[in-house]
């Protein structure tokens, strides 16, 4: 659970672009759908099996495979939804959900941010307008978040609160 | 064969209930600050899973012992 400081307000909550979720779901769905298809039509395969005896069981296995697929897709969506960047007026909170039982949360004070770089590579990122943001801090640590939308808006939000912007607001 | 199918069905059902309960719990406590619980996606997944569960059950009762 994210706890905000006194007088801290949230400026934006950023999730990964929907294409990232879609790609993950397709990768998970293909083997399950192939398996379900094979199981559903297993009774039609010429292996010398009793057609009438095997049909209900193979259909049952096919439906069960699709049931498990829905669970896998739900868990993939949950992982996507709980991965986020929370940009407040004081810090950036990087939340990384890794599976069901692992979660990593990092704080990046905006006062330590020195440089923000955005990268858009490839035709898909160009046409769907998402990419990577890299944040360099005073301690020479670099934080990266991949496949997020609204890159320029996020960059401006972060830079607006950094110390260098306070001194040179028009740069 | 019916016993084997029933075992698989129970394992899948219990596994689904366990994993989805944990996921929903995490969505409740770790959702972004200021955002409400994502009712629509969770309901969509639950309804779709229920339909496939019913489909699997309908085939299960046709499996010969």
Largest interface: A-B, 32 and 35 residues
Q: Strand portion of chain B, in percent?
A: under 5%
What are the low-pLDDT stretches of chain B, counting only 5+ consecutive residues below 50? none
Placed side by side, the strands forming the largest sheet of chain A appear as: 1-2-3-4
> What is the string of SSEs of chain A from the N terminus onward?
EHHEEEEHEEHH
Structural class of chain A: alpha+beta
User: Which spans of chain A have pLDDT < 50 for at least 5 consecutive residues?
Assistant: 166-171
- End-to-end separation of chain A in angstroms reads 36 Å
Overall number of structural domains of chain B = 1
Radius of gyration of chain B: 16 Å
Q: How is this structure best described in words?
A:
The complex is a heterodimer of chains A (171) and B (65). Chain A is of the alpha+beta class and 171 residues long. The longest helix of chain A has 32 residues. Chain A is elongated and about 75 Å long. The C terminus of chain A is likely disordered. Chain B is mostly helical. Chain B has one domain. In chain B, 78% of the residues lie in helices and 0% in strands. Chain B is built from two helices and no strands. In chain B, helix 1 runs antiparallel to helix 2. The longest helix of chain B has 29 residues. At the A-B interface, helix 2 of A face helix 1 and helix 2 of B.
Short structural summary:
The complex is a heterodimer of chains A (about 170) and B (about 60). Chain A is α+β, with helices and mostly antiparallel strands and about 170 residues long. Chain A has helices spanning about 20-40, 50-80, 120-130, 150-160, 165, and strands at about 10-15, 85-90, 90-95, 105-110, 115-120, 130-135, 140-150.
């Amino acid at each position: 659970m994210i706890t905000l400081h006194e007088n801290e307000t949230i400026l934006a909550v950023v999730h990964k672009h929907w294409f990232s979720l879609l790609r993950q779901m397709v990768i998970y769905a293909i083997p399950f759908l192939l398996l379900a298809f094979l199981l559903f039509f297993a009774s039609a395969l010429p292996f010398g099996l009793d057609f009438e005896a095997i049909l209900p069981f193979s259909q049952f296995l096919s439906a069960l495979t699709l049931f498990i697929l829905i669970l896998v897709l739900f868990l993939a969506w949950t992982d996507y939804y709980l991965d986020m960047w929370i940009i407040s007026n004081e810090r950036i909170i990087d939340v990384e959900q890794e599976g069901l039982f692992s979660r990593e949360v990092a704080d990046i004070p905006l006062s330590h941010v020195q440089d923000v770089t955005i990268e858009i590579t490839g035709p898909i990122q160009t046409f769907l307008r998402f990419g990577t943001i890299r944040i360099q801090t005073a301690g020479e640590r670099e934080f990266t978040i991949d496949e997020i939308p609204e890159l320029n808006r996020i960059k401006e939000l972060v830079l607006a609160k950094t110390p260098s912007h306070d001194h040179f607001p028009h740069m | 064969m019916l016993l084997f199918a029933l075992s698989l069905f129970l394992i899948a059902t219990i596994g689904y209930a366990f994993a989805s309960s944990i996921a929903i719990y995490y969505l409740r406590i770790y959702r972004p600050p200021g955002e409400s619980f994502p009712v629509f996606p969770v309901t969509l997944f639950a309804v779709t899973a229920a339909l496939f569960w019913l489909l699997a059950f309908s085939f299960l009762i046709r499996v010969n012992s």
